[in-house]
Design brief:
Layout (H helix, E strand, L loop, with lengths): L8 E2 L2 H6 L14 H11 L5 H15 L1 H12 L10 H9 L3 H19 L6 E3 L5 E8 L2 E5 L8 H14 L3 E6 L10 H10 L3 E4 L2 H10 L9 E3 L4 H10 L4 E2 L7 E6 L5 H12 L6 E6 L2 H14 L6 H11 L1 E4 L3 H11 L3 E5 L3 H5 L7 E4 L5 H6 L25 E8 L2 H17 L3 H12 L4
Parallel strand pairs: 1-11, 4-5, 4-7, 5-6, 7-8, 9-10, 9-12, 10-11, 12-13
Antiparallel strand pairs: 2-3, 3-14
Helix pairs in contact: 3-4, 3-9, 3-10, 5-8, 6-7, 6-8, 7-8, 9-10, 11-12, 11-13, 17-18
Amino acid sequence: MTGEPVIRIYDDLEEARRTLLQRRGVLTDEAPEPLRESILRIFGEELSPEQAVARILADVRRRGDEALRDWTARIDGLVIEGFEVPPQEWEAAYGALPAELAEALTLAAQRIREFHALQPVTSWTTEALGGTLGQKIVALERVGVYVPGGTAPLPSSLLMAALPARVAGVREVIVCTPPGRPDGRVPGVLLAAAHIAGVDRLFRIGGAQAVAALTFGTESIPRVDKIVGAGGLFTTLAKRQVYGLVGLDGLYGPTETVIVADETAHPAWVAADLLAQAEHDPLATAILLTPSRALAEAVQAEVAKLVPELSRGEIAVQSLAGQGGIVLTPDLETAVRLADEFAPEHLCLSVQDPQRWSEQVANAGGIFLGEHSCEVLGDYVAGPSHIMPTGGTARFTGPLSTLDFIKVINIIALDAASAARFYPAAACIAQAESLTAHAAAAKIRITDESV
């Protein structure tokens, strides 16, 4: 490491706006050199990531399991004949867990279930508007949960996606996850999480080919109604390309945290929270906004002190150098406003009276009020799903919940008297839109004396 600080302090607010706080979106057209080289090696020609993904989708749609085997061999270097992992292996993996981990995952599952069971999702009707009107809530039939592999298994992500689906009443929950071990097997902790969540089937397949299988169906993997869960670039691009053929929860980029803190915050705690975010991915974002220079400098020092102790310290350093920083603001109000404009996945309010400041926030995947409500608890055991909008999409969407696993069907059962009152207005609007058949369908009911 050089003499440069692990995390930079931005004294110039306008510079921070132009750089650190400038949104690039969930997906960009830029492909880094290593990815371009990988695509050339796998496909034998220069393709954009979008073109590469389109090739995989089309091939799986045409050749099914055979294509899945070919792409898994070419991309992952693994020869896999059977993709499904039977439930007996999940149960065995659960039984082999250390007792402390089994208890922790069971606690997390219990809290996720209990939280989502409280979400109001009910059918309703009213007769106050004439006849009977309402909405029927119907759970989706079959959902695909994608659990990323990457550099570490993520059993929490399986629980956070599968359990809200179960609570919503989804009939069949299918999990796809990349083979996470050199022998092509799924890590035991993921199998144990599948057992705890009570999913129906689990397949060891990842990337764009998994999205293709869930969208189109193959000989082994059934077609689903909706795909949920985060993934890497190819997975996310694949989800974008299949939208309309299958439902989606959202498009997710690298994870991100913004902490707003005042002089009362614990520097070591803030530093630990920033590093907890940064260790996810070299592209993860960890930002502190504070009006306190003393806190900023103390946090900067604590980050440097903690990094050498981390197993993923190198990743955290890359993340902080690329997307991390500490921004000095003139006051706390400005810090909160900047955070709201950034619309982060996680917004942590390490301030006095966090409830008051949270009322000024409209854009965030989750708001963590106070230093005891740290993001790491939200990641695992608080209860709400940790699958939340990234890349500024919190401006228009929210975290994964039971609402992602239901659909609404409108109920219209007008009585004769009410309908008679509405025919003329309907005919009038239809005529204005030059839809004369619509107008006639209303008018015939006005003039038909046999009714």
